[in-house]
């Protein structure tokens, strides 16, 4: 049996050019390629699936209308995330009575001894997730966003700078302040969950 060779994926650049020429199918390919990433990011901000779906449609509509403004000196997915973040923050502003909801735990709350999970670990993680959401909800929008992009989405400093259209130094200082605010609130409100002074902070790509 001969293995069937998979056709290489069409580069974003070519799909974008095709969309600008009027090829709607090409835009459908872009949506299919990135919709999971967009939904995941919006899931940090939306309260329910329906709300997230509506906001995702708004995002892709904006992308379709503004695609001709995209400059190929940056990656398409960073530009797409910028549009998504802007739409999400606008959504929060329009519904200021609603609160940001994070749906995943942060590494700062991980428990266990030498990689072994304690019998109470599931309850601890559930409580940690609740505490994480409560504290992040209290942060100003610019700090919430940068924590989501770095700690939950795993973007590098350079990618965050591109997405938010800020300087690399601003990313570093803002992330430092966001983490400090998070830790201070954790120490103040939940000292039993705070990491020890010598504990390493979450790492990842820079």
Describe the model:
Helices cover about 60% and strands about 0% of the residues. It has about 210 residues and is mainly α. Helix 2 (about 25-40) crosses helix 3, helix 3 crosses helix 4 (about 75-95) and helix 7 crosses helix 8 (about 170-190).
Q: Oligomer, anyone?
A: single chain
* Gap between N and C termini: 45 Å
As a percent range, the share of helical residues equals 55-70%
Mean pLDDT: 77
Biggest sheet character: none
Total beta-strand segments? 0
Brief rundown of the structure:
Helices cover 61% and strands 0% of the residues. The chain has eight helices and no strands.
Q: What would the keywords be for this entry?
A:
elongated, 206 residues, mainly alpha
Produce the secondary structure layout:
Layout: H1 12-20, H2 24-42, H3 49-66, H4 76-94, H5 121-138, H6 141-152, H7 157-164, H8 168-189
Helix pairs in contact: 1-2, 2-3, 2-4, 3-4, 4-7, 6-8, 7-8
